[in-house]
Protein backbone atom coordinates (compact mmCIF):
# COMPACT_ATOMS: atom_id res chain seq x y z
CA UNK A 1 0.00 0.00 0.00
CA UNK A 2 2.78 2.39 0.93
CA UNK A 3 6.40 2.48 -0.16
CA UNK A 4 8.20 -0.51 1.46
CA UNK A 5 10.55 0.61 4.25
CA UNK A 6 13.53 -1.38 3.02
CA UNK A 7 14.68 -2.78 -0.29
CA UNK A 8 13.27 -6.30 -0.72
CA UNK A 9 16.58 -7.71 -1.87
CA UNK A 10 19.35 -6.07 0.14
CA UNK A 11 17.58 -4.44 3.10
CA UNK A 12 18.74 -0.90 2.40
CA UNK A 13 16.53 1.86 3.85
CA UNK A 14 14.64 3.55 0.99
CA UNK A 15 11.31 4.78 2.40
CA UNK A 16 12.74 8.03 3.80
CA UNK A 17 13.79 9.18 0.32
CA UNK A 18 10.53 8.44 -1.47
CA UNK A 19 8.65 11.71 -0.86
CA UNK A 20 11.57 13.82 -2.03
CA UNK A 21 12.01 11.51 -5.02
CA UNK A 22 8.35 11.95 -6.02
CA UNK A 23 8.50 15.72 -5.64
CA UNK A 24 11.61 16.02 -7.74
CA UNK A 25 10.36 13.68 -10.47
CA UNK A 26 7.05 15.61 -10.60
CA UNK A 27 8.97 18.86 -10.97
CA UNK A 28 10.68 17.47 -14.05
CA UNK A 29 13.95 15.90 -12.91
CA UNK A 30 14.99 12.63 -14.53
CA UNK A 31 14.61 9.65 -12.13
CA UNK A 32 18.15 8.51 -13.00
CA UNK A 33 19.67 11.79 -11.85
CA UNK A 34 17.59 11.89 -8.66
CA UNK A 35 18.53 8.30 -7.74
CA UNK A 36 22.21 8.98 -8.43
CA UNK A 37 22.10 12.04 -6.17
CA UNK A 38 20.51 10.00 -3.35
CA UNK A 39 23.47 7.62 -3.69
CA UNK A 40 21.30 4.61 -4.52
CA UNK A 41 23.76 2.49 -6.48
CA UNK A 42 22.35 -1.03 -6.73
CA UNK A 43 19.57 -1.80 -9.17
CA UNK A 44 17.60 -3.70 -6.52
CA UNK A 45 17.14 -0.48 -4.53
CA UNK A 46 16.62 1.67 -7.63
CA UNK A 47 13.69 -0.44 -8.81
CA UNK A 48 12.02 -0.03 -5.39
CA UNK A 49 11.69 3.73 -5.91
CA UNK A 50 11.19 3.58 -9.68
CA UNK A 51 8.34 1.07 -9.68
CA UNK A 52 6.52 1.77 -6.41
CA UNK A 53 2.79 2.57 -6.69
CA UNK A 54 1.10 3.84 -3.55
CA UNK A 55 -2.46 2.49 -3.43
CA UNK A 56 -3.23 3.93 0.03
CA UNK A 57 -4.41 7.16 -1.61
CA UNK A 58 -7.09 5.16 -3.41
CA UNK A 59 -8.49 3.76 -0.15
CA UNK A 60 -8.19 6.82 2.10
CA UNK A 61 -11.03 8.80 0.29
CA UNK A 62 -13.56 6.16 1.41
CA UNK A 63 -12.55 6.74 5.03
CA UNK A 64 -12.72 10.49 4.52
CA UNK A 65 -16.26 10.07 3.14
CA UNK A 66 -17.28 7.90 6.11
CA UNK A 67 -15.95 10.54 8.48
CA UNK A 68 -17.85 13.32 6.65
CA UNK A 69 -21.11 11.34 6.76
CA UNK A 70 -20.54 10.62 10.45
CA UNK A 71 -20.16 14.33 11.16
CA UNK A 72 -23.31 15.11 9.15
CA UNK A 73 -25.32 12.57 11.15
CA UNK A 74 -23.91 13.96 14.38
CA UNK A 75 -24.84 17.53 13.47
CA UNK A 76 -28.38 16.47 12.45
CA UNK A 77 -28.87 14.76 15.80
CA UNK A 78 -27.88 17.79 17.84
CA UNK B 1 47.82 -10.87 10.14
CA UNK B 2 46.96 -7.26 9.53
CA UNK B 3 43.99 -5.11 8.75
CA UNK B 4 44.03 -1.88 6.83
CA UNK B 5 41.17 0.53 6.12
CA UNK B 6 41.16 1.39 2.42
CA UNK B 7 38.22 3.75 2.42
CA UNK B 8 35.42 4.65 4.72
CA UNK B 9 32.38 6.91 4.78
CA UNK B 10 29.26 7.20 6.91
CA UNK B 11 27.77 3.89 5.81
CA UNK B 12 30.34 1.91 3.80
CA UNK B 13 33.78 0.64 4.77
CA UNK B 14 36.41 -1.27 2.76
CA UNK B 15 39.19 -3.02 4.60
CA UNK B 16 42.13 -5.01 3.34
CA UNK B 17 42.76 -8.29 5.18
CA UNK B 18 46.37 -9.45 4.98
CA UNK B 19 47.63 -12.96 5.73
CA UNK B 20 44.20 -14.27 6.62
CA UNK B 21 43.13 -17.63 5.19
CA UNK B 22 40.01 -17.54 3.01
CA UNK B 23 37.95 -19.54 5.55
CA UNK B 24 38.47 -16.98 8.31
CA UNK B 25 37.92 -14.03 6.01
CA UNK B 26 34.67 -15.58 4.81
CA UNK B 27 33.59 -16.33 8.39
CA UNK B 28 34.11 -12.65 9.23
CA UNK B 29 32.13 -11.62 6.16
CA UNK B 30 29.20 -13.83 7.14
CA UNK B 31 29.24 -12.64 10.77
CA UNK B 32 29.26 -8.99 9.65
CA UNK B 33 26.25 -9.66 7.43
CA UNK B 34 23.88 -11.29 9.90
CA UNK B 35 25.71 -12.38 13.04
CA UNK B 36 25.88 -9.21 15.10
CA UNK B 37 22.99 -8.68 17.53
CA UNK B 38 21.20 -5.40 16.80
CA UNK B 39 17.98 -3.78 17.96
CA UNK B 40 14.69 -4.03 16.09
CA UNK B 41 11.07 -3.78 17.17
CA UNK B 42 10.00 -7.28 18.15
CA UNK B 43 6.68 -7.01 20.01
CA UNK B 44 3.98 -4.47 19.20
CA UNK B 45 0.98 -3.93 21.45
CA UNK B 46 -1.70 -2.24 19.39
CA UNK B 47 -3.97 -0.22 21.66
CA UNK B 48 -5.86 1.49 18.86
CA UNK B 49 -5.52 1.14 15.12
CA UNK B 50 -8.27 2.58 12.97
CA UNK B 51 -5.96 3.16 9.98
CA UNK B 52 -6.41 1.41 6.63
CA UNK B 53 -3.37 -0.77 7.32
CA UNK B 54 -3.99 -4.07 9.15
CA UNK B 55 -2.36 -4.59 12.57
CA UNK B 56 0.17 -7.10 11.23
CA UNK B 57 1.03 -4.83 8.30
CA UNK B 58 1.69 -2.02 10.71
CA UNK B 59 3.80 -4.23 12.99
CA UNK B 60 5.83 -5.39 9.98
CA UNK B 61 6.54 -1.83 8.87
CA UNK B 62 7.57 -0.82 12.38
CA UNK B 63 9.88 -3.83 12.70
CA UNK B 64 11.77 -2.92 9.53
CA UNK B 65 12.64 0.60 10.75
CA UNK B 66 16.38 0.64 11.54
CA UNK B 67 17.01 1.89 15.09
CA UNK B 68 20.25 3.57 16.12
CA UNK B 69 21.83 1.96 19.18
CA UNK B 70 24.87 2.12 21.48
CA UNK B 71 27.23 -0.86 20.98
CA UNK B 72 27.12 -3.64 23.60
CA UNK B 73 24.82 -1.70 25.89
CA UNK B 74 21.99 -4.26 25.80
CA UNK B 75 21.80 -7.96 26.60
CA UNK B 76 20.18 -10.55 24.39
CA UNK B 77 16.72 -11.44 25.77
CA UNK B 78 17.58 -15.10 26.43
CA UNK B 79 20.95 -14.32 28.04
CA UNK B 80 19.77 -11.45 30.24
CA UNK B 81 19.97 -11.94 34.00
CA UNK B 82 16.43 -10.61 34.56
CA UNK B 83 14.80 -13.94 33.52
CA UNK B 84 11.66 -12.03 32.79
CA UNK B 85 9.53 -12.76 29.74
CA UNK B 86 8.74 -9.10 29.16
CA UNK B 87 12.36 -8.13 29.83
CA UNK B 88 14.08 -5.38 31.81
CA UNK B 89 15.69 -2.08 30.86
CA UNK B 90 18.90 -3.97 29.97
CA UNK B 91 17.34 -6.19 27.33
CA UNK B 92 14.51 -4.19 25.76
CA UNK B 93 13.56 -0.63 24.87
CA UNK B 94 9.97 0.62 24.96
CA UNK B 95 8.84 2.79 22.06
CA UNK B 96 5.49 4.55 22.10
CA UNK B 97 3.41 6.21 19.44
CA UNK B 98 0.13 8.06 19.75
CA UNK B 99 -0.92 9.80 16.55
CA UNK B 100 -4.17 11.09 15.22
CA UNK B 101 -5.36 13.43 12.54
CA UNK B 102 -7.48 16.45 13.42
CA UNK B 103 -8.26 18.46 10.31
CA UNK B 104 -6.75 16.77 7.25
CA UNK B 105 -5.31 13.49 5.94
CA UNK B 106 -1.65 13.27 6.84
CA UNK B 107 1.26 10.82 6.75
CA UNK B 108 2.58 9.57 10.06
CA UNK B 109 6.38 9.68 9.97
CA UNK B 110 8.93 7.86 12.11
CA UNK B 111 9.69 11.08 14.08
CA UNK B 112 6.44 10.54 15.99
CA UNK B 113 7.88 7.46 17.67
CA UNK B 114 8.79 8.32 21.27
CA UNK B 115 11.59 6.23 22.72
CA UNK B 116 12.27 5.38 26.35
CA UNK B 117 16.03 5.55 25.71
CA UNK B 118 17.34 8.63 23.91
CA UNK B 119 20.14 6.66 22.22
CA UNK B 120 17.63 4.33 20.59
CA UNK B 121 15.56 6.02 17.92
CA UNK B 122 14.75 5.59 14.21
CA UNK B 123 17.73 6.33 11.97
CA UNK B 124 15.70 8.68 9.83
CA UNK B 125 12.85 11.00 10.78
CA UNK B 126 11.19 10.78 7.37
CA UNK B 127 10.13 7.14 7.15
CA UNK B 128 6.40 7.05 6.32
CA UNK B 129 4.60 4.56 8.56
CA UNK B 130 0.96 4.99 7.57
CA UNK B 131 -1.46 7.60 6.26
CA UNK B 132 -4.31 8.63 8.54
CA UNK B 133 -7.59 10.24 7.45
CA UNK B 134 -9.45 12.62 9.76
CA UNK B 135 -10.75 10.75 12.79
CA UNK B 136 -8.40 7.78 12.41
CA UNK B 137 -6.04 7.09 15.26
CA UNK B 138 -2.97 5.05 15.95
CA UNK B 139 -1.85 4.19 19.46
CA UNK B 140 0.84 1.61 19.95
CA UNK B 141 3.44 0.42 22.40
CA UNK B 142 6.41 -1.43 20.93
CA UNK B 143 9.32 -3.36 22.40
CA UNK B 144 12.67 -3.34 20.63
CA UNK B 145 14.93 -6.29 21.40
CA UNK B 146 18.31 -7.59 20.27
CA UNK B 147 18.35 -10.30 17.64
CA UNK B 148 20.29 -11.74 14.74
CA UNK B 149 19.71 -11.72 11.01
CA UNK B 150 19.54 -15.51 11.01
CA UNK B 151 16.19 -15.22 12.85
CA UNK B 152 14.61 -12.44 10.80
CA UNK B 153 15.88 -10.05 8.11
CA UNK B 154 14.93 -7.03 10.26
CA UNK B 155 17.94 -7.88 12.46
CA UNK B 156 20.44 -8.00 9.57
CA UNK B 157 23.42 -5.95 10.70
CA UNK B 158 24.65 -5.09 7.19
CA UNK B 159 23.04 -4.58 3.79
CA UNK B 160 25.92 -5.99 1.85
CA UNK B 161 29.12 -7.71 2.89
CA UNK B 162 31.42 -8.69 0.05
CA UNK B 163 34.82 -10.32 -0.08
CA UNK B 164 36.93 -9.60 -3.16
CA UNK B 165 40.13 -11.37 -4.12
CA UNK B 166 43.32 -9.50 -4.89
CA UNK B 167 46.33 -10.67 -6.89
CA UNK B 168 48.24 -11.74 -3.80
CA UNK B 169 47.67 -14.95 -1.86
CA UNK B 170 45.70 -14.66 1.41
CA UNK B 171 44.87 -11.03 0.80
CA UNK B 172 41.22 -10.03 0.53
CA UNK B 173 39.16 -6.88 0.52
CA UNK B 174 36.07 -6.88 2.73
CA UNK B 175 33.41 -4.29 1.90
CA UNK B 176 30.59 -3.82 4.40
CA UNK B 177 27.61 -1.49 4.02
CA UNK B 178 25.76 -0.72 7.23
CA UNK B 179 21.96 -0.46 7.58
CA UNK B 180 22.45 2.65 9.69
CA UNK B 181 22.07 0.90 13.04
CA UNK B 182 25.80 0.65 13.78
CA UNK B 183 28.57 2.60 12.09
CA UNK B 184 30.66 0.54 9.63
CA UNK B 185 33.71 0.56 11.91
CA UNK B 186 31.58 -0.65 14.84
CA UNK B 187 30.25 -3.39 12.57
CA UNK B 188 33.74 -4.69 11.80
CA UNK B 189 34.93 -4.58 15.42
CA UNK B 190 31.79 -6.21 16.83
CA UNK B 191 31.98 -8.73 13.98
CA UNK B 192 35.49 -9.71 15.03
CA UNK B 193 34.38 -9.98 18.71
CA UNK B 194 31.40 -12.10 17.75
CA UNK B 195 33.53 -14.40 15.61
CA UNK B 196 36.08 -14.92 18.39
CA UNK B 197 33.27 -15.59 20.91
CA UNK B 198 31.81 -18.21 18.60
CA UNK B 199 35.18 -19.89 18.12
CA UNK B 200 35.74 -19.96 21.90
CA UNK B 201 32.32 -21.47 22.44
CA UNK B 202 33.04 -24.06 19.74
CA UNK B 203 36.36 -24.97 21.39
CA UNK B 204 34.69 -25.35 24.79
CA UNK B 205 32.10 -27.67 23.32
CA UNK B 206 34.82 -29.78 21.64
CA UNK B 207 36.65 -30.06 24.98
CA UNK B 208 33.46 -31.24 26.66
CA UNK B 209 33.14 -34.08 24.13
CA UNK B 210 36.70 -35.31 24.77
CA UNK B 211 35.96 -35.64 28.51
What does it look like?
The complex is a heterodimer of chains A (78) and B (211). Chain A is built from four helices and no strands. By secondary structure, chain A is mainly α. Chain A has one domain (15-77): Arc Repressor Mutant, subunit A. Chain B is of the alpha+beta class and 211 residues long. Chain B is 24% helix and 36% strand. Chain B contains three helices and twelve strands; from the N terminus they run ββαβαβββββββββα. In chain B, strand 1 (2-8) and strand 2 (12-18) form a beta hairpin. Chain B starts with a strand and ends with a helix. Classes of the chains: A mainly alpha (78), B alpha+beta (211). The A-B interface holds A 1-7, 10-13, 15-19, 42, 56-57, 59-60, 63-64, 67, 70 and B 52-53, 57, 61, 64-66, 105, 107, 110, 123-128, 130-131, 133-136, 153, 156, 159-160, 177, 179-180.
Summarize the structure.
The complex is a heterodimer of chains A (78) and B (211). Chain A has 78 residues and is mostly helical.
Task: Provide the fold topology.
The complex is a heterodimer of chains A (78) and B (211).
Chain A: H1 18-26, H2 31-38, H3 43-51, H4 56-77
Chain B: E1 2-8, E2 12-18, H1 22-34, E3 38-49, H2 55-64, E4 67-68, E5 92-100, E6 106-109, E7 114-115, E8 121-122, E9 128-132, E10 137-147, E11 158-165, E12 171-178, H3 184-210
Antiparallel strand pairs in B: 1-2, 2-12, 3-10, 4-8, 5-7, 5-10, 6-9, 11-12
Helix pairs in contact in B: 1-3
Amino acid sequence: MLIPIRCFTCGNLIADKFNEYLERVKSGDKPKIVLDEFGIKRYCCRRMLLTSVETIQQIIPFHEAIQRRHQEVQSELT
Amino acid sequence: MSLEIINQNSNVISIKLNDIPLQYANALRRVCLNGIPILAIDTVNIIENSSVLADEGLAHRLALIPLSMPVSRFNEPLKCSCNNKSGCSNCRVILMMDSGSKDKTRTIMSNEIISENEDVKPVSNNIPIVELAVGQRLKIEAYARLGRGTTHAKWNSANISVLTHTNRKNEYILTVESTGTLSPIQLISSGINELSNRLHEFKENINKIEL
